[in-house]
Amino acid sequence: MTMVSPGPVTVPPVAGPPPTDPAPAPRGGRRRRPDDEGGRGIVSPGEWRSPVAGTLLRLAHAVLLIGLLVVGLGPLLWLVKASLSHTQDTLRDPMALFPSGVDWANLATAWSEVHVDLYFFNSMALAAGSWLVQLVVATTGGYALAVLRPRYGPVLYWLVLSTLFVPAVVLLVPLYLTIIDPPLIGVSLVDSFWAVWLPAGANAFNVLLAKRFFDNLPREVFEAARIDGAGPLRVFWSVLLPMSRPILGVISVFAFVTAWKDFLWPLLVLRDPDIQPLSVRLPTLARSIELDVLLAALTISALIPVALFLVFQRTFLRSAGLSGALKG
Amino acid sequence: MLTWIRRGGLSTLLFLLPLVVVFGVFSWWPIVRAAVMSVQQTNLVTAPVFVGWENFETVFTDPLLGTAVRNTAFFALIALVFGYPIPLVAAVLMSEVRRWRGLYSAVAYLPVVVPPVVAVLMWKVFYDPRPEGLFNTVLGWVGIAPQSWLQSADTAMGSLVLEATWAAAGGTVIIYLAALVAVPPELYDAAEVDGASIWRKVWHVTLPQLRGVLLVTLILQIIGTSQVFLEPFLFTGGGPANSTITVLLLIYDYAFSSSLGGDYGAATALSLVLAVFLALLSALYFRLTRSWSTS
Amino acid sequence: MRSIRKPAAAVAAALVLAGMTACSGGGEPTTTPEGKTAITVVSLKPGSEQAAFDAFEEQVRQFEAANPTIDVTTQEYEWTGPTFTAQLAGGTLPTVFTVPFTDGAGLVERGQLADITEHVQALGYVDKFNEAVLATGKSADGRIFALPTEAYGVGLQYNRTLFQQAGLDPDEPPTTWDEVRSYAEQIAERTGQAGYAEMTQDNTGGWMLTTLTYALGGRMQSVTGDQVQATVDNPGAKAALQRLKQMRWEDGSMGANVLYDWSTINQDFAAGKIGMYMGGSDVYTSLKQQNGIDPDDYGLAVLPLAPGADSGLLGGGTLAAVNVKASPEQQAAATKWIDFYYLGKFVRQDAAVQDAKTLAESDQPVGVPKLPIFDEATLTQYNEWIEPYVNVPLGQMSSFTEGIHGQHLAGEPPAQAQEMYAVLDTVVQAVLSDPNADIDALLAQADADVQTVLDRG
Q: Which domain, by its residues, includes A129?
């Protein structure tokens, strides 16, 4: 469950398989000429060559790139700089470059003494567990609803989809009370990773994505496998899942990103500092540790997802194009 | 019974088990419980008491509710002013980029991958109200007087929106880019035959083609911003003088901020009111996506 | 449906049990496998320095050595109004935890604390407590649910280095509020830092407004029989807010940051960004442990009180209480811990010496000014016992330690103090963030709002 993002009230504009690549992100050298393979844009080749329009457009692009770099990259570069500076430098002249030298110790202090390493591990564990629970619920549920199709399936599917209309905020208090005193087991889940992992699974959007994708897979494949003697489990594991890589990727990115960003829910249910993720722990620490160490801790916390993004850029942007607004 | 099992009824159930358990315990049951709790007085110590509409009365007579609704609406409004046209202009321009388009979208999307808490704590430093603060230093370069940012009721909300827009705009840009790629090139060819300029092509071809996406992002943004919590909670705690208290922050305060025990009834009552409002919006959203994706 | 539910229950239970063992969260066992009584106690505030945690761990070892049947787990903890309830409701409070005096009665009334009367009586010094202080943790019928562990009076914290830089004598802190104002202006002018700052968030704004109001002769509540009346709209409060308004907007001596809570104002003070602020007399411990303040910077003065019989110094304190969910064995063990860690040192020399020695060896503050929770003589005796170990700059606190005896101490408002403080936060923030704030209107509105809180009970 996510409290920070707009909540589960979101469905992608396109939810059918396979997700088309809406934002091709060509690598540096490869040009994508507007007139290649009919893939032209608003501006025609003739206009590109025109001295006025073409120049203006190039100028606009240059301004845009500079603007994007200043706004998108600038703050992060500043953060890196500040995390290597002395507190007093950052306070007195935040825009100066290392007036009294570089302070490498901040990063080490943040990592080991402030225990960013521990909170980072907790963030990873929370994200990984939420991801796994979401994947299990979405794939098994989607498989049963789309392929096995029990008679009560439509009712169940409707019940799942109806939760899309209930914003996360309604769940805040009753879900919290449920976690304190869960039915069936009677032991409080507070201060346990399960308090975050399990509610994360109740994500109707994932079920919807998975079911729609499975719906569109050719049924003959499943029939053939069944005639060959494969049981439902075997069909699920050896036929369905291998065919579903694209949608699993999309769900995974969503799951990981939301879990990494979640704040209010882990704040409520993880009170023990030793199991808190970075998002919960950093605001507490910000109230006591020195500024340079805090900024170093922020740098570490920001650079890891940024690095992941740069490596898996295409997957990230494809998911974002599919439903970027999910991240509000 | 046996034939039911042989026909796969049991294994189907087993496959549905994770879904049913997880949704049952962590979604359906809490939703029902929210409805029940909104007409009860619950403090977790003594047994809940039925109180009828009393919780709703508490909420609607709370002078803070008006403030919170106004603030939330104000946040949503200026978030639209900042966060709606800028990504659109950027996306239209970016769709025409011929070299390094990947660089453009990567840089635009970068703030979105920064964890929100990290972004807020970083921007809190940017918003240092002293003349030596980062933003005030930059403003000083162009001769603008230092601003109070988060420390004044007049500028606090604007400052929250600025950060929120920075953190979210990249996502909107990528959605628009996706939609722009899907505009059929023949439409531009046809427009050129009629002698349309670049400007007219944007106005008469591109924007009408984006109408569906624009509506959807509009509603999504309103749904998202009416639940804003993180920014006011971490930046200002609702201050100064309640100028940034939002509906969700008020719900949180009802439930958790009195040190002698929370008012869970009022909290759930207010969250249900907000939910009805959001459900109406999302119903609208579903209608629009349906008509849009079939058109 | 039956067939769905049963396996569902089994699977859910199995999943959860697996999680429990995997990350040791969840339930709180009352005994360890070796049959010891397990209790959880409050350690230090988040972000304290490692040496402070080391010293604390050493004290835990001493306690466990003396009580081999008790197993102590520690938990980092800081009481703030807005975070306490989530812990209370979530059942994540330690077996022994601390709350301010203001919340003792309310928590007792709501049945949230364990009755520890018998265990406390066994300690043998219950009759030595200052009766008024002990009453903050007692129920109406005289049962003991919480024990006072320390009491503070609010003092004026000031930065000696900034005083010097501003051309002020650090050994002559201000003695009137007019002096506070002119000193603050001088500091702001000559050093560029905030001359004076005030807490405004998480109920601390109301706490400090009440302190200043007391100091100027006002009171926030009046009690007749069992009726409590809000008197927020009083001349003292008005004078207090007008002073803040003048310093903030006419003199420009309060800096630009108006959103401070307890932690962040300490943080900025230790970083040399604040000349003076009001804070508890015992805050030095936290300034040292959490914020690493340079001891040479630190000065503590007695709070100036306006002339007149009505002015008073706001004092408060901390109660140690035992979780209502604790088993009888845990309650007994918890009370032993309260004796060992918080109270025994005041009445037994060996305990006092051991405590002071352990702290001093890790360079943790010993000898911070406190107000008596027992009688005056007991505190004097205690101060003598620990004298060899005192390592805080007591000389820089002499204005407080000497001046406090002449001051009229006044307790915090008797009813719903924290909720009232929350209402007053807004008033203080409005005055400090809006140059055109209408003090009369704000006070009238706050008075009505507080009355509503009081009437709701």
A: 114-288
